[in-house]
Design brief:
Elements lengths: L14 H8 L7 H13 L3 H21 L4 E5 L9 H8 L4 E6 L2 H11 L5 E5 L5 H6 L1 H6 L7 E4 L12 H11 L5 E7 L6 H11 L11 H7 L4 E2 L5 E2 L11 H7 L2 E7 L2
Parallel strand pairs: 1-2, 1-4, 2-3, 4-5
Antiparallel strand pairs: 5-8, 6-8, 7-8
């Protein structure tokens, strides 16, 4: 399987580090900040998009914790970013085990340094789109029990999977490896409800990074979850998944660029 890492040197901006910068974090490089600035120029609401995506992650994580999911596979979401999976778990008071997976060696190195030998979490360097490599990694095998439900977090991931790799096949392979009762949490970039120029601008700017992005339709996102039971309200705009408040007009405009869903393995 083609590695999502693409170019891994500091000469290429990476989506995770761009996201960290736009969330106000310091775990990024000058090349990431330059491309983030270009992205903000092209898509003025991009910080709102990222914050709304992060808000969905928090709501989805709380729903998984309420369902007694006690182990998580965090694919490409980064232990470095503010409001990451581990932060949500720790604030909840639940005792959970977490495997963070990233292909970018810089992010992995910084993540391991940040965890500093923590017992409840590890960072694995692997292609998040390669379920076999992820599950075969000794740290994953040590941390997670595949016989018990796992929360697989695919927030801000699948739109970086090329069509040739088949994002639906990626999700299906994870489904095959996790126990009944497991949940998959995903969000995905879309141009269905965004102005065409914003969609094109996002694609163009990210084509200069190590993580080119691909918008996909509602039908394509639904197809990725074949074989799952969709948790209500199904595949919806990122701001429509169990919102905690009414979005303002700027947030509504930004939220139109992402689909979100949580699905259960029957």
């Amino acid at each position: 399987m083609t590695d999502l890492a693409g170019g891994t040197g500091p000469e290429l901006a990476r989506a995770g580090r761009i996201r960290d910068y736009l969330l106000g974090d310091g775990h990024n490089l000058a090349v990431d900040r330059r491309l983030a600035a270009a992205l903000e120029t092209a898509v003025p609401d991009i910080r709102q998009v990222i914050r709304l995506n992060r808000g969905f992650l928090h709501r989805a994580m709380r729903s998984l914790l309420a369902a007694d999911i006690g182990q998580f596979l965090d694919l490409g979401s980064s232990v470095l970013a503010a409001g990451n999976v581990r932060e949500v778990v720790r604030r909840s008071g639940h005792g959970c085990r977490i495997v963070h997976v990233d292909a970018d060696p810089i992010t992995v190195r910084q993540g391991r340094s940040l965890l500093n030998g923590a017992k409840d979490a590890v960072v694995v360097q692997a292609d998040p789109a390669d379920a076999g490599r992820v599950f075969d990694h000794p740290d994953t095998a040590r941390m997670l029990d595949p016989g018990r439900p796992i929360g697989v977090i695919m927030v801000d991931l699948l739109h970086f999977v090329p069509d040739a790799m088949g994002p639906a096949a990626v999700v299906a392979e994870y489904r095959r490896r996790i126990a009944p009762g497991s949940r998959v949490v995903l969000s995905h970039f879309t141009g269905d409800h965004w102005p065409t120029h914003l969609t094109r601008s996002t694609v163009e700017v990210m084509s200069r990074s190590g993580d080119p992005i691909r918008p996909r339709s509602y039908e394509e996102v639904v197809a990725m979850l074949a074989g799952f039971e969709l948790v209500e309200p199904g595949v919806v705009g990122v701001g429509e998944w169990h919102p905690e408040r009414r979005l303002d007009p700027v947030e509504e405009r930004a939220a139109a660029g992402l689909y979100a869903a949580v699905a259960r393995v029957p």
